[in-house]
Specification:
With about 290 residues, the chain is of the alpha/beta class. Helices cover about 35% and strands about 15% of the residues. It has ten helices and eleven strands. The protein has a seven-stranded parallel β-sheet. The protein has a two-stranded antiparallel ribbon with strand order 1-2. α1 packs across α2 and α5 packs parallel to α6 (about 185-195).
Length: about 290
């Protein structure tokens, strides 16, 4: 199991409404694509519990993610967590009627109730058609926010064009320590147009596949230094990152932490700390996370 202590979750306002949204959310790609058995789902319930106890709310899924929508919805309903969750999913098909059918099914699977918080056009598939439907649904009160997504820098030109043409409430894009292309145009444009930004693959492309734990630890500063207020935490704002040489000096420590393995607690227990400094920087203390799956 895991527990959380000393947590202060930062929030940011959604520009189109001013509603506060916690800065850390939960994606469901791969991890929530599991079967109905309790052994597979119990650890995911712990993940959701950790998210909500830490002050988080965003749970993001997609029809593209296999069984993830259904699994997330079942877990949210079973524990009565719907009021705590900001439910986000996507539409990933072509055609008006096909889009409507898919979005209705997603709402049913995720147990959102009559109103879902956010639906995004996944990878910009037939975005004009789907955004037209979403705007009608928003006017009718079926969806609170609408958005667009993509996951690769090669799509940034198209993302930029759609942001300018449609001004959605949200844009979801790739942004990480080793994937910073969004800084050049997309993030400034989102600020200019008042579009909220969701970040996918925040650990970076290199940590998205197998072996990602080791690769993630190579990017993370020593949590003892972060807690002590050291000047160089790697997962702070990119402008304050450490040099690669400094990070590599602690690679051995990080790899030992990664090799503790799934389900094995360290001597201080498993935890995630999100710390707020007076100057407003956000620190992610992830080196002590040992996932429960």
């Amino acid at each position: 199991s895991c527990y959380i202590r000393d947590v202060i979750m930062l929030t940011r306002p959604i520009p189109s409404t001013g509603e506060a949204l916690p800065v850390i959310g939960l994606g469901t790609w791969r991890g929530f694509d599991v079967g109905p058995d309790a052994a597979s789902r119990a650890p995911l319930g712990q993940v959701l519990e950790a998210l909500f106890e830490a002050g988080g709310s965003v749970v993001d899924s997609s029809p593209m993610y296999g069984r993830a929508e259904a699994v997330a919805g079942d877990l949210l309903a079973a524990r009565g967590w719907r009021p705590k969750a900001f439910i986000a999913t996507k539409v990933w098909t072509r055609g008006r009627e096909a889009g409507i059918d898919e979005m209705r099914r997603s709402m049913d699977l995720m147990k959102s109730g009559p109103v879902i918080d956010l639906i995004q056009v996944h990878n910009l598939v037939d975005w004009r058609t789907q955004l037209e439907t979403l705007r009608a649904w928003k006017a009718e009160g079926r969806v609170r926010y609408l958005g667009i997504t993509h996951y690769t820098p090669s799509a940034h030109d198209e993302l930029e064009a759609v942001m300018r043409a449609a001004t959605p409430d949200f844009v979801q894009l790739d942004y990480a320590l080793d994937d910073r292309a969004a800084e050049r145009r997309l993030l400034p444009l989102a600020a200019e147009l008042g579009i909220a930004v969701l970040v996918n693959r925040p650990a970076g492309p290199r940590a998205a596949g197998l072996g990602g734990v080791d690769q993630l630890h190579e990017l993370v500063a020593d949590p003892a230094e972060i807690r002590a207020g050291a000047s160089g935490g790697d997962l702070r704002h990119p402008r304050n990152r450490q040099s690669g040489a400094h990070a590599r000096q602690r690679a051995g420590w990080r790899r030992r932490a990664a090799r503790r393995g799934a389900g094995q607690a360290n001597d201080r227990g498993d935890r995630m700390s999100v710390l707020k400094r007076p100057e407003g920087d956000l620190y992610y203390d992830v080196c002590d996370i040992v996932p429960p799956w």
